[in-house]
Design goal:
- The chain has 325 residues and is of the alpha/beta class.
- The protein has two domains: 154 residues, Rossmann fold, CATH 3.40.50; 127 residues, Rossmann fold (3-Layer(aba) Sandwich).
- The chain contains eleven helices and eight strands.
- The strands form two sheets. The protein has a four-stranded parallel β-sheet with strand order 2-1-3-4, with helices on both faces. Strands 6-5-7-8 form a four-stranded parallel β-sheet, sandwiched between helices.
- The radius of gyration is 20 Å and the shape is globular.
- The termini are far apart.
- The model has no long low-confidence stretch (mean pLDDT 94).
Length: 325
């Protein structure tokens, strides 16, 4: 059996002419108005029409590849995206051509919910027309390789504003998705582990759904206004829900939140993310070793313990069926 590691991510445009086709891929079948796509497209064009996510994933792959060369196992690492090149379908075709028969899939989402877990499994299944055995690695929100780098990033940010209010932020999701998963509980636990006893708030960002559909709140910008009205003048924002500084971190926090902080006269420091850290790459290798049966214990901090390897049938419930569907 020829084994490999498959890094699976969301994808992002690499040049301005890619932006609208990418957004159309992301929103296909969801009835998102063209004017809304054009608004989001401006976020990408603000940064030259290129998302940093692909390069960040390639850096992670390079770190993991070097670690595997030094410590084993001798496994190639492939890269496939949900919404842009390299597409998962093309990556599976390449793996098949290379003789890969089993792949350990690492998904760039540390938390469980439909869009961060089940939808990736659905994408993998749809793209895998070659019968390659795929073992999706467990979520890693409480793994030391994620938590410890985030702790250090928060400590560095707090050193610049020791009296600041600590705010953790993650991508908002619809309430049906939150109710059908452990997303909020995992975010709360990861935030608690990173905060190490310091008081904190957990808020959300990047909402993109219809106005009449309830999503997780409070929104980061609304929360900043509320804190300001209560007398808070310094904040540290930690994007706990993200593993790298991709577009939603750069635009929603480094642009929108920072501009609001300046408008309110608040000092804002944004903590970094984890995927560039050597401990994060070591975690990817360790998760693969776990799934291969090469480790007798599974690393997990806190009280929730390591997540399951194989998702149960009711894990991360899919969208509710529309009437008549």
């Amino acid at each position: 059996m020829s084994e490999a590691i498959l890094l699976v991510s969301f994808g992002g445009p690499d040049r301005p002419e890619d932006v609208m086709p990418f957004l159309e891929n992301v929103t296909r079948g969801r009835g998102v108005p063209r004017e809304r796509l054009e608004q989001v497209a401006e976020h990408y064009h603000h940064f030259g029409g290129k998302s940093p996510i692909n390069e960040q994933n390639l850096t992670l792959i390079g770190n993991v590849t070097r670690l595997l060369a030094q410590q084993g196992p001798d496994l190639p690492v492939y890269f496939g995206n949900r919404n842009w090149h390299p597409f998962l379908t093309d990556t599976f075709a390449q793996m098949n051509a290379d003789g890969v028969t089993k792949a350990y899939a690492f998904v760039t989402s540390a938390f469980s919910c439909y869009s961060g877990c089940r939808q990736y499994r659905e994408n993998i299944e749809a793209a895998n027309t070659f019968g390659i055995e795929v073992a999706k690695l467990r979520v890693y929100f409480n793994h030391p390789g994620f938590v410890e780098p985030m702790r250090d990033e928060v400590k560095a940010a707090l050193a610049q504003a020791p009296a600041a209010r600590l705010i953790f932020t993650a991508h908002s999701i619809p309430m049906w998705m939150a109710h059908g998963s452990k997303y909020v509980a995992q975010l709360e636990e990861a935030s608690r582990l990173v905060a190490e006893g310091r008081d904190f708030d957990l808020v959300y960002q990047s909402r993109s759904g219809a106005p009449n559909m309830p999503w997780l709140e409070p929104d980061i910008l609304d929360h900043m206004r509320a804190l300001h009205s209560q007398g808070t003048r310094e904040i540290v924002i930690c994007p706990i829900g993200f593993i790298s500084d991709h577009m939603e971190v750069m635009y929603d926090l480094d642009e929108e939140a920072r501009l609001l902080a300046e408008e309110l006269g608040m000092k804002m420091v944004r903590a970094g993310t984890a995927s560039h850290d050597p401990r994060f790459a070591a975690m990817v290798r360790e998760l693969v070793l776990e799934r291969r049966g090469d480790l007798s214990t599974k690393a997990a901090l806190g009280v929730l313990g390591p997540s399951h390897d194989v998702c149960p049938v009711d894990c991360c419930a899919p969208p509710p069926r529309r009437p008549g569907a």
